[in-house]
Amino acid sequence: MKEQKLEEILKKMLNENTDISARSVIRETDSPFKHASDVTRQPQRKALLERYQNEKKLPVADVAARLGVSTHSLYAWITCPDTEALIW
Predict the structure, then answer these.
(1) Which pTM value belongs to this model?
(2) Alpha helices in 28-87 (DSSP H)
(3) Beta-carbon neighbour count of residue 52 at 10 Å?
(4) 8, 45, 56, 87, 88 from 75: Cα distances, Å
(5) Which pLDDT value is given to residue 85?
(6) Does the CA dihedral 72-78-83-85 come out positive or negative?
(7) Of 10, 23, 30, 42, whose CB neighbour count within 10 A is largest?
(8) Which pLDDT tens digit goes with each residue over 7-30?
């Protein structure tokens, strides 16, 4: 029952492009969980949370802005086989 509700909440958060974390799950008004550990201590729930966190893909421009680098630098870092060779 709670796993099904958790998946519904996670789908909603993914569709709304909301940050997905155990704490954000418990903040949802219709959440049956009271504490973040209610999600993270159960292996099935934790795996479901991690799956949805991995599904949430951020645009390269957003990631670059968060890191304080240009998108060009980020692409270079991603595609460079020797990351130590990059000069920031």
Answers:
(1) 0.61
(2) 37-40, 43-55, 60-67, 71-79
(3) 18
(4) 34, 34, 19, 13, 13
(5) 56
(6) negative
(7) 10
(8) 999 999 888 878 889 999 999 988
Domain boundaries, the chain: 2-55
User: Which two three-digit tokens encode residue 51?
Assistant: 């799956």
CA distances, 86 to each of 25, 71, 79 (Å)? 38, 14, 11
pLDDT tens figures, 33-87: 999 999 999 999 999 998 888 877 777 887 788 778 888 887 877 777 665 655 5
Q: Which two tokens stand for residue 1?
A: 């029952």
DSSP 8-state class, residue 1: -
Q: Which of these, 58, 2, 13, lies nearest to 23 by C-alpha position?
A: 13
| Residue owning tokens 């893909």 | 57
